[in-house]
From TrEMBL:
Keyword field contains Oxidoreductase: yes
Highest taxon above the source species: Eukaryota
InterPro entries, A to Z: ADH-like_C (IPR013149), ADH-like_N (IPR013154), ADH_Zn_CS (IPR002328), GroES-like_sf (IPR011032), NAD(P)-bd_dom_sf (IPR036291)
Protein keywords: Metal-binding, Oxidoreductase, Zinc
Name this protein carries in UniProt: Enoyl reductase (ER) domain-containing protein
Protein species of origin: Ramazzottius varieornatus
Any single Pfam family the record assigns to this protein: ADH_zinc_N
Domain Alcohol dehydrogenase-like N-terminal: 59-188
GO molecular function, one term: oxidoreductase activity
Needed cofactors: Zn(2+)
UniProt similarity note: Belongs to the zinc-containing alcohol dehydrogenase family.
Domain Alcohol dehydrogenase-like C-terminal per the UniProt entry, residue ranges: 228-293
Amino acid sequence: MMNPTNIMAAVADKVLGHNPTSTRQQPKTHPTEKMKAIVWHGKFDMRYDEVPRPMVSEPHDILLKVTATTICGSDLHLYSGELPGMEKGDIVGHEFMGIVVDKGPDVKLPIGTRVVVAFDIACGFCDFCKREEYTSCDTTNPSRVAETMFGHALVGVFGYGHMVGGYWGGQAEYVRVPFADLNCLPIPEDVPDEKALYLSDVISTSFHACEMGKVKPGDKVGIWGMGPIGLAAARWAQILGASTVVAISGTEDRLDIARSLGCVVINYHEQDPVETISKMFPQGLDCCIDAAGFRFAKSIGHKIQRALLLESDTPEIITECCKACRKNGIVSVIADYPGTANNFPIGTISMKHLRLESGQSPTQRIWKMALEKLRTGEYDPSFFVTHTMRLKDVPDAYKQFYNREGGMVKIFVRP
Ligand SMILES: [Zn+2]
Ligand SMILES: [Zn+2]
């Protein structure tokens, strides 16, 4: 069953029509060959299905044979049906890597190259791409729903629904990658799939969280949410020289991982984060990172408002970040907020002279630097990878990940 959020988005998509784009969204498919993929059928209903195999569909495309993929924390918004724009039959997944097995005539990457693919689909020639603002690319998403909601269209994203283009995702055996010379990063032999995979999103996104927060030597940094992004950001904050990283979560096994990194931990079921931080650091933290997001209402009031559709997003994590932040500090919102929130703490931001930064990681600008950190071993993502499995087991993994069972943080999937 599609839920109201997705039905309304699909209706709006039909009514508003589409903007022209620099590339097609739906790939051409092979007349006879099939592949396996993870397909969205509705709320809490991901399936391992057989679907047509995509083909190179534009001169700038490659066809990638996927060798590794994973579930992102943000895929759980699709799983729970809370992010609008999903349609039955959509292939999900935006974090993947593999081998180039076919290419269009404009692609320089040789066939056989092992690459990681960025989650965001950038064109390389629009004004935003020229400034390396790849997650603002203006030419890859036809959705007028997004344009109507936000004032401008968003970048196209693999496997993340029709608000961002409806591109086929990478939780599959094959995927078509547009503008491949920009959106693929060749991986040297000395970096295994088990580490390189996470350059597609987690490692660059978590770096971007710290970059937006201007984390520098000596800073005291707080991170709300110890999913893969929060944990990965904690490690970046340390590399950037933070003197203290405070990790906040309600899940004890995730706090254990943060503890093993050397973070100060707060379990919000046991201690109030703002009170605890103000006891530890009376002036407050230099940078507060929200790596949790819009779904996580804590108070009864906001749980009711979300249930009654009076707000789509809860501002409670941002409110805690603003309260725990020192005057003139920075609140960096890397978490997803697709809608509107009531009781947004505009007064705290204004009166404490805070800077609020937000946005998605321009992966293609960050990943070469991050790859070098992987090669030297300074950044080793193994600490947040908890499970390894096959693609057929991914529907069950969604359930486990959503319910935070079995200590699952990040899975490594071989098709
Ligand atoms: Zn992701
Ligand atoms: Zn562009």
